[in-house]
Design goal:
Layout (H helix, E strand, L loop, with lengths): L6 H30 L1 H11 L1 E6 L6 E2 L5 E13 L7 H15 L3 H10 L8 E5 L3 H9 L7 E10 L7 H4 L2 E3 L2 H6 L10 E3 L2 H5 L1 H4 L4 E7 L5 E8 L6 E4 L3 H18 L15 E7 L6 E7 L13 H9 L8 H4 L9 H10 L9 E3 L2 E4 L2 E4 L7 E3 L1 H7 L2 H20 L7 H8 L21 H15 L5 H9 L6 H7 L9 H13 L2 E3 L4 E5 L6 E4 L4 E4 L4 H17 L17 E7 L7 E8 L6 E8 L4 H16 L16
Parallel strand pairs: 2-10
Antiparallel strand pairs: 1-8, 2-3, 3-4, 3-5, 6-7, 8-9, 10-18, 11-12, 11-23, 13-16, 14-15, 17-20, 18-19, 21-22, 22-23
Helix pairs in contact: 10-22, 13-15, 13-16, 13-21, 14-21, 15-19
Amino acid sequence: MLPSQSPLRSRTTLLSVVVAVLLLALLSRLWFLQVLAGQRYGNLAEVNRVRQVVVQAPRGRILDRRGRVLVRNRAAWAVTVKPTALTDRRQRDAVLQRLSHLLGISRAKIDERLRDYNGSPLRGVPVAEDVPTDKLFYLAEHGGELPGVAPEVVALRDYPNGPLAAHVLGYVGEISADELKSGTFPGLRQGDTVGKAGVELTYDRYLRGRDGVEDFEVNASGRVVRSLGGHPPVPGMDLELSVDLDVQKQAEQSLKDGMKLARGLADSSRGGTYPAPAATAVVLDPNDGSLVALASLPEYDPRKFVGGISRRDFAAYSKDPRNPLLDRAIQAAYPAGSTWKAVTALAGLQHGVITPSTAIHCPGSYQFGNSVKHDWTPKGHGTVDLTKSLQLSCDVYYYNVGASFSRSEMSQEARGRKAAEQMQATARSLGFGKAPSLDLPYSAPGTVPTREWRKRFWEANKAVYCKGTSALYRALCRDGWQWQGGEDLNIAIGQGALLVSPLQLALGYGAIANGGTVYRPHVAQAVTNPVTGRAVRTIRPRVARVARIPAGDFAAVARGLATVPSTGTASGAFGGFPLDRFPVAGKTGTADLPPKAPFAWFASFAPVENPRYVVVAMVEQGGHGGESAAPVARALYEKLFGLPIKPIVAGNDRSG
């Protein structure tokens, strides 16, 4: 028997206590897991054997104004690669090399698709679409030999008309990290598909639909045992556009013909022929602002974006000096040239500078202060009234109008008053100088130069200009900024710092056609349920502003414009056109943007008394307006009015 104070007995007692405490802790933990947390861990176990698969919602179709399909979906077999299943480098190389040989595509192409992918790491990356059936059978039979590789049915955007109306339609792609952070697409997650451009972007929330979910029971090895149901996806809505497929086709074809025509015309100032690298056209309804056609060349091919555009293709588009990704109709701004004379005429009439009968002698030049401004023809035009000034495109007439505004404003400033800038105010009332509120992204605001604008521009750029040798810039750098009176003369003929987008010019001419209402332009007319066909949302005409200009002033300008296609600077382009049945009011324009060749314009509306269409055509570096732009507009009117479409030939206009 051990003594009561034996050290061995003390250690035995301590060990017994420790064992008892550990046993009690273990029993407590077991009781917690089985009783208190039993439900929670049961749920986790259930989740561990149930897998949820997201079922992507079919994206809505895009239709033209007559219900014809412009964009749709198609199912295609794709081969996907899940990089997370190929962590071993040797295995990855072997699998991808074998896949390259099987699919007949280069290993570099597969690597590029994997590298460019920015979607969910849990999803397989499509490396090939529209895979032939025999390749799919091979993958099914040898799937175990190619880990991470699987065939998969994917929904791809389909463009039955190829690149037609690409800038209007846009394209889709997987949502980027920046887009997720920006909140542009609330409620989405990595890997979701969204619109990236055109109406695919602006109407994305209608076209996208809502994804569904399907639950599957899986065994311990992860194989599917059975489907447990779920909820199906909700297809996206269809989008009906105001664009007419036939008119859009004609617009793009006529622009191609106009560019080809310009490239055959002699450039007497620079030698050779006009380069005509790009062109654009707008057709809209002046009574509601709906766009019937919106064309920009060169275009891009949206089919290259299906499944994700390659870096090589995107780089080719980005580096192309013709900039095919740019929608010139709405995103670019240019000097308006003589098409602007209609706006200057309205300003002169509105503010009492001229009347329709005001006669001004129109020689070949005009002196303002120490500078001499030249007419487009050295021989001049004699004495002309308002109608004749538009018909013949007399620059000197509009130099006189611009000079009258300039002298009045200089007088106001001399008396310590702020210049009224009435010519610019009239332009702004017609929608110029501000980006149109349009259901397409990134419309250009253009520029209507004012004293305040010029001051801001000078302050932002004087460091560059003060390095030059121009006497004018040296004086400005020495004495400070001041408005030059000659700027009003430049504005009066649509030159200088004045810039407009083709869409802005179409809206302005639409206001002349309808008596002063500037509508908000739109390319969509309804969002419809694809099942019932009923409209979920109708895009109704909305007025952006109303120009407070007397109706008689609009009528006087319209009368002058109506003489341009019949006996004026566009008469060569409209020779043989039935103007008696479909009278056209329009204005040619030749915009100078040195050192480039002139930009050719034609802005118009028809029929004159009851306007249904506004047509604006512009050929970059295409020469004179009547030579290459007016023939494009004529072909469009032939299409719009159901007339035989004659081959495009050069007009006889060489005006400013």
